[in-house]
Amino acid sequence: MEKLLNLWQSTGIYQLQGGQAIMLLVCLGLIYLAIRKGFEPLLLIPIGFGGLLANIPGAGMAEAGGLLDLLYQIGLPTSVFPLLIFMGVGAMTDFGPMLANPKTLMLGAAAQFGIFGTLLGALAIGALGIPGLEFTMREAASIAIIGGADGPTSIFVTSRLAPELLGPIAVAAYSYMALVPLIQPPIMRALTSKEERAIVMTQLRHVSQTEKVVFPIVLSLLIGLLLPDAAPLVGMFAFGNLMRECGVVERLADTSRNALINIVTIALGLTVGAKLSADSFLQIKTLGILVLGMIAFSAGTAAGVIMAKVMNLFSSNKINPLIGSAGISAVPMAARVSNRVGLEANPQNFLLMHAMGPNVAGVIGSAVAAGVLLSFVG
Questions:
Q1: Taking 70 as the threshold, does the pLDDT of residue 155 lie above it?
Q2: Residue 279's pLDDT band (boundaries 50, 70, 90)?
Q3: At residue 378, does pLDDT exceed 70?
Q4: Distance between CA atoms of 219 and 235, rounded to whole angstroms?
Q5: What parts of the sequence cross the membrane (predicted)?
Q6: 262-283 average pLDDT score
Q7: How many angstroms separate the CA atoms of 142 and 153, rounded?
Q8: Among 8, 32, 50, 244, which lies 20 to 30 A Cα-Cα from 42?
């Protein structure tokens, strides 16, 4: 009987605490949303399953020496995982639409307003002294970067400034990226008239191969020399794009945008999931992070649309304001949403390629914003 009692007490069921049970349900919910609703399945399934493993009592997978802890030590404090993902994203990205219409860079820049506005908001909330919502400058900067709607950038900044918030910030960033088709359209419709949404934009000019090859090199040098803290993100993004466009290392480009990025995505998702422990996630601060992240994301969307409307006041070639919402970094989902809302107003209006310009600019903008935050706060 004593041995049976010891066996029972060694089971996870006996050791299971209330907080762990809640987190197991949360992680099962993430997996459900990924499988049944299609919300960022490539990330939410590894994150959700990593959370399950981390909250199994007695398994020790997220503790020192466990598999998930080893993956964390390899990939996040060193920033290896988010940087490799940025390289893979660069290998999948076409800068052509942005180079064909350079004005869209301004839309990508405007969409970063949500980051800096939320930074001030988080600091203001912290100054109020609300119990559980006292955010330090480093925590506020990590929360604010959610507004860029760029998961790897959020992880990159948070791992350096506030690693204890990595779980809730990563979940918030990827959740809002997945919810782009639900969050953005109401904001876009509220800020534009039907006539504005029906604006047909002129055909984009052809971008030469030489321009596409030169641009990532110039981008890396320019950002690296002006803002070294942003050089890791922008540099890896540009390197991946150079492999895509130069035409002489197709094997490397193919590996970056397929096998390598898939392997790193699995490891990154499991590692982030390991940070969804009950002790670190079930706090009032987590709710504050989710709310502030939503505000940041919504503000970035609104700022991009408003900037497009302002630009139309000074331009003869009108910009459809809907493409301004694509200035956040959720590539290519935000561009698809801009195209879908545009088709509702004008079935002959195809905005996808036009929206890809600010969408790609938003990736660069969020990386630059991350560099600015690291420079001032880190």
A1: yes
A2: confident
A3: no
A4: 8
A5: 12-35, 42-62, 74-93, 105-130, 165-183, 213-239, 259-278, 287-307, 350-377
A6: 86
A7: 10
A8: 244
Residue 179: both structure tokens together: 């919810």
**Token couple for 332:** 């290519």
On whether the CB atoms of residues 201 and 316 are closer than 8 A, the answer is no
Residue owning tokens 């990595």? 166
Which residues, 6+ apart, have CB-to-CB distance to 172 below 8 Å? 146, 289, 290, 293
Cβ-proximal residues to 176 (8 Å cutoff; 6+ apart), any chain = 146, 149, 183, 293, 294, 297
Per-residue tokens: 4: 């049976």
Cα 267 from Cα 82, distance rounded (Å): 11
C-alpha span between 66 and 64 (Å, rounded): 6
Retrieve residue 287's tokens: 């709710």
One-letter amino acid for residue 51 of the chain: G
| CB proximity list for 77: less than 8 A, separation 6 or greater | 159, 163
**Residue 248, pLDDT score:** 95
Ranges of H-type helices in 93-230: 96-100, 104-110, 113-127, 137-144, 151-161, 166-178, 180-191, 194-197, 209-226
Amino acid letter, 370: A
Give the integer Cα–Cα distance in Å for 72 and 49: 15
Distance of alpha carbon 146 from alpha carbon 179, whole angstroms: 13
> In the chain, where are the structural domains located?
82-250+292-377
Compute the distance between CA of residue 330 and CA of residue 356 in angstroms, rounded to an integer. Answer: 10
pTM for this one?
0.88
Q: How far is CA 173 from CA 32, 68, 69, 85, 258, in A?
A: 18, 21, 22, 15, 23
Using alpha carbons, list the distances in angstroms from residue 209 to 94, 217, 233, 353: 11, 13, 24, 17
Tens-place pLDDT, residues 343-358: 998 888 889 999 999 9
Distance of CA 160 to the CA centre of its chain: 16
